[in-house]
Specification:
The structure holds two protein chains of two kinds. By secondary structure, chain A is mostly helical. Chain A has a single domain, classed as Cytochrome C Oxidase, Chain A, CATH 1.20.210. Chain B contains six helices and no strands. At the A-B interface, helix 6, helix 7 and helix 8 of A face helix 1 and helix 5 of B. The complex binds copper (II) ion. The site of copper (II) ion has 3 residues of chain A, from loops.
């Protein structure tokens, strides 16, 4: 296993350079790269929209864009970010790349379905762009009826079909992961030896399989109602708009866990590698992923506290929403305990771990405010809610995604990124993020409603702070694009295992991996994160 | 290290160790897919139950205008088609190419009969202007808006089911092509088995749709 640098080994990147070999690939690693490119594009699109409406909100009056345009901007921002960035980000890029490597398999169970999921995603994405151009959509990413079904004059049906289609790419990814984890594990890799990243993706795939079809049928019914006049959600036609909210949130609350669970899996991997310790309470961290997946399906009613839901139902959903915070808290405590007396090193991925723990904790704890029936009456539909879910989704999900990208960049590309610029970028993201969203907690508490393009002049200072933060955040996100791309040609060649991490993906598979992942199928003889053995 | 490279079965994909692993994965994949289908139809069924409990009278009234004769006939057709499908799965796993063809063809035929009867039913609804929308007409006692909701759900539910039948028909034709090429044997008949699972599932959906739309509440009026 000597490292012969003079003649580079065959790997999944250099075995075939043709365009066709990329577009028709069934290699999970190449599909991950296809996803990475597409997802980065949609992140840029969604981000630019946010920049535009943060500029608009720098002044109390509406001056940069019209009210209609503003509505379209925040709707498209939400739709693109949720369905085309946050949901596929970690699973479709890092999960696709790493799952087979981590469990010692040659590929996912259904490679062609895996490629199909990317094409379905691209089809849905193209339709969304088309919807944006042909009239836009102004319903909010939640598509609430009867506004969306009856009153909106925008491309609701196109956008609905786009979401419907994209759902199937998510279903195929989940189905692939579930079967892969069940059936393709290497000899000796028992369930209790699985990396926590794999456990997190297992829980995620269950939510994808159970939740996404309900969203699909819901937007399909919305499209049927709008297109053909079948009134399932429109009270004028005998339907029930609250039914739409129930169905929508039955998927869309668990969807938050589709986003956050894979990121939590990344954090578990990084924290073990950079503290050189087995993750504290491995069993509890693994089980908490499953607990989140299960309980997460029974809390959707906290979005309907003010939507004519009965008080009793509200109390039950409020209680369950408190309960679902427990497994998340278990994870946070266990990561912290892992760091305790670990030999921590401070490369960029570890910084993202700290960022995740801090920001996700704020996001999670402010969620408890909103799960409280009485407090929610005051905070409902204000900027407090906006700040809360951005702390979870941007502070949590994207921190994990970025941390994972940095951690696995050498594995994926065979090159090291520039550590100095990566740290600068992390700093900008962390500061910019807090500057953007901390003021929004205050604004929400003061009563500023979300989704308006103008506001009372007294709230301008906080809004200017938020807009300034968004600019810093934007630069923070642009930097990695530059230094990652730069590293592809000029980065230092990565060694086989630059972080000295445990796991089949680092210890056995080449860097970058062979087209078939492993030269021979590995046999696993130890638990995950067996770092302690080195210390003896 | 691959001891079986010489005797590698043509149907075995590269990333599986042996046919058993491939078979187990395909089975679990199909069952997981059917689970997503359950959730999809489940959402629809829930809409129906909510609407029915709200507008019971209108739903009972509208339900009387569906033909139990045609619906019942179709139920029998589908149950028999599930039998022929099961026979096709069995004969494919025994490697009987001719028998497999006959049973697949029989299943396809029964599926076509079902869709034909559905077409007759839909045409009658169109003739009586029972299609929700601007031209909707209703001369019964119940509130037309609520009856319209019943027919909306009727068309969406049976329409989604019929779409699954059409896809199933396509899958049967694909199986017949594979069978013609002699791809199925005692060692490998996974595709027939998977389509069989799918076909039975679509059958079961109808077993729920028929009483829900045609039967329940009939005695009360
Ligand atoms: Cu929620």
């Amino acid at each position: 296993m000597s490292n012969d640098t003079s003649s580079p080994k065959v790997n999944y990147l250099n075995n075939d350079y043709s365009i066709k070999s990329w577009l028709l690939t069934v290699d999970h690693k190449r599909i991950a790269i296809l996803y990475l490119i597409a997802i980065s594009f949609f992140f840029l699109v969604g981000g630019l929209m946010a920049v535009l409406f943060r500029f608009e909100l720098a002044t109390p009056q509406g001056d940069l864009v019209s009210a209609e345009t503003y509505n379209k901007l925040f709707t498209m921002h939400g739709m693109v970010m949720v369905f085309f960035f946050l949901i596929p980000s970690v699973p479709a890029v890092l999960g696709n790349f790493l799952l087979p490597l981590m469990i010692g398999a040659k590929d996912v169970a259904f490679p062609r379905l895996n490629l199909a999921s990317w094409y379905i995603y691209m089809l849905g994405g193209t339709l969304t762009i088309f919807a944006a151009i042909s009239g836009g959509i102004d319903t909010g990413w939640t598509f609430y009826t009867p506004y969306s079904s009856t009153y909106a004059n925008t491309a609701v049906v196109t956008a609905g079909i786009a979401v419907f289609i994209t759902g199937f790419s998510s279903i195929l990814t989940g189905l692939n992961f579930l079967v892969t984890i069940h059936k393709l594990r290497a000899p000796g890799l028992t369930w209790s030896r699985l990396p926590l990243f794999v456990w997190a993706h297992y829980a995620t795939s269950i939510i994808m399989l159970l939740g996404t079809p309900v969203l699909a049928i819901t937007v399909a019914l919305l499209a049927v109602e709008r297109g053909l006049g079948f009134g399932i959600f429109d009270p004028n036609l005998g339907g029930d708009p609250v039914l739409f909210q129930h169905l929508f949130w039955f998927y869309s609350h668990p969807a938050v866990y589709i986003m956050i669970l894979p990121s939590m899996g990344v954090i578990s991997e990084i924290v073990a590698a950079f503290c050189r310790k087995r993750v504290f309470g491995y069993t509890f961290v693994a089980a908490s992923s499953l607990a989140i997946a299960v309980i997460g399906f029974f809390v959707w009613g906290h979005h309907l506290f003010l939507s004519s839901q009965s008080v009793f139902a509200g109390m039950v959903f409020s209680f369950l929403s408190y309960i679902v915070a427990v497994p998340s808290a278990i994870k946070v405590f266990n990561w912290t305990a892992t760091m305790f007396r670990g030999s921590i090193s401070w490369e960029t991925p570890m910084l993202y771990v700290l960022g995740f723990i801090g920001l996700f904790s704020i996001g999670g704890l402010t969620g408890l405010f909103l799960a409280n029936l009485a407090v929610d009456v005051h905070l409902h539909d204000t900027y407090f809610v906006v700040a809360h879910f951005h702390y979870v989704m941007v502070g949590g999900v994207i921190m994990g995604y970025m941390g994972g990208l940095h951690y696995y960049w050498p594995k994926i590309t065979g090159r090291m990124y520039n550590e100095f610029w990566a740290k600068i970028s992390f700093l900008l993201i962390f500061v910019g993020f807090n500057l953007t969203f901390l003021p929004q907690f205050v604004l929400g508490q003061l009563g500023m409603p979300r989704r308006y393009y103008f506001y009372d002049a007294e709230w301008q200072t906080l809004n200017v702070l938020s807009s300034a933060g968004a600019s810093v955040l934007g630069i923070g996100y642009l930097l990695p694009v530059i230094y990652f791309l730069y590293s592809l040609k000029n980065g230092k060649i990565a060694s086989q295992n630059p972080w000295g991490a445990k796991g089949l993906e680092w210890e056995v598979a080449d860097t970058p991996p062979d087209p078939h992942n492993f030269h021979e199928i590995p046999v696993v003889t130890e638990e995950a994160y067996a770092y302690a053995k080195e210390a003896h | 290290m691959s001891t079986s490279s010489e005797s590698k079965h043509p149907a075995l994909a590269d990333h599986f160790i042996d046919l058993k692993q491939q078979y187990d994965s395909a089975q679990l994949g199909m069952w997981s897919f059917l689970l997503t289908e359950v959730m999809m139809f489940g959402g629809l069924f829930m809409c129906y139950i909510v609407a029915r409990s709200q507008f019971l009278e209108a739903f009972v009234d509208a339900s009387h205008h569906l033909s139990i004769g045609l619906g019942g006939f179709n139920t029998i057709v589908l149950i028999v088609s599930s039998l022929t499908m099961a026979m096709a799965v069995h004969s494919a796993s025994e490697g009987h190419q001719k028998k497999t063809f006959k049973f697949l063809l029989g299943t396809l035929f029964l599926g076509a009969v079902f869709l034909g009867v559905k077409y007759i039913e839909y045409s009658a609804k169109i003739e009586h202007n029972n299609i929700p929308g601007d031209n909707f007409e209703w001369h019964g006692v119940a509130n037309p808006a609520n009856v319209e909701l019943f027919f909306g759900l009727y068309f969406v539910m049976t329409g989604l089911h019929a779409a699954h039948m059409i896809i199933g028909g396509g899958l049967l034709i694909w199986l017949m092509v594979l069978n013609h090429k002699g791809r199925f044997s005692k060692e490998f008949s996974t595709p027939v088995e998977l389509v069989g699972l799918y076909w039975h599932f679509v059958d079961i959906v109808w077993i729920f749709l028929f009483p829900l739309l045609y039967l329940i509440g009939r005695h009360s009026a």
